[in-house]
Specification:
The complex is a heterodimer of chains A (114) and B (114). Chain A is 0% helix and 53% strand. With 114 residues, chain A is mainly β. Chain A is globular and about 40 Å long. Chain B is built from no helices and eleven strands. The chains are: A mainly beta (114), B mainly beta (114).
Chain lengths: 114, 114
């Protein structure tokens, strides 16, 4: 079974600084998709960024970017110019290319210090 | 508004009771997924429906059941409730492709069993 591991239960960053959240996954598939979701205190699950495994280029969405290392099965999220509104739980998720459900990691709680 | 509607938002009930959680997917989405999030934990996949048919099952208890109706809305039934069933229950939907672009989540139903 596929597993997703987030080894940092909690992280903190100073406002305007950069932080990187780690994620590793275990799979024998070659075609799959990876996601980062944000869960603020409102508990709403918000898609931050996605990456297709067959694309070598790392995905970016404004201040959010990923470092996708397929051979190492690593998918880290970098948040640049951190803002107070970035404080949330961040979940890494994986799914194969078939119609299979998303598998989530246990999450990393990010605090942003003013 | 994500387009996925979950009702009720909050539910308080006693042990041994039965409740029904409702989800209306985003317009045009055929797949519905149910997830359980216990306090400060990751999201655990329960069950998936696609166009009215069950597609995948996760760690769903026998006391729990679900269905997707012809109008594509879905219901999750939880019976013989126990204190440990207290959690946030999310419904998510995805496009025909099975979620290659991620899922759209509802705002969740917070269930408290007392």
């Amino acid at each position: 079974a596929q597993t997703v591991t987030q080894s940092q239960p909690e992280m903190s960053v100073q406002e305007a600084e950069t932080v990187t959240l780690s994620c590793t996954y275990d799979t024998s598939e070659s075609d799959y998709y990876l996601f980062w979701y944000k869960q603020p205190p409102s508990r709403q699950m918000i898609l931050v960024i996605r990456q297709e495994a067959y694309k070598q280029q790392n995905a970016t969405e404004n201040r959010f970017s990923v470092n996708f290392q397929k051979a190492a099965k690593s998918f880290s999220l970098k948040i640049s110019d951190s803002q107070l509104g970035d404080a949330a739980m961040y979940f890494c998720a994986y799914r194969t290319s078939g119609n299979t459900p998303l598998v989530f990691g246990k999450g990393t709680r990010l605090s942003v210090i003013a | 508004d994500s387009g996925v509607t979950q009702t009720p938002k909050h539910l308080i009930t006693a042990t041994g009771q039965r409740v029904t959680l409702r989800c209306s997917p985003r317009s045009g989405d055929l797949s519905v997924y149910w997830y359980q999030q216990s306090l400060d934990q990751g999201l655990q996949f329960l069950i998936q429906y696609y166009n009215g048919e069950e597609r995948a099952k996760g760690n769903i208890l026998e006391r729990f059941s679900a269905q997707q109706f012809p109008d594509l809305h879905s219901e999750l039934n939880l019976s013989s409730l126990e204190l440990g069933d207290s959690a946030l229950y999310f419904c998510a939907s995805s496009e025909k492709g099975g979620g290659n672009y991620g899922y759209t989540f509802g705002s969740g139903t917070r269930l408290t069993v007392v």
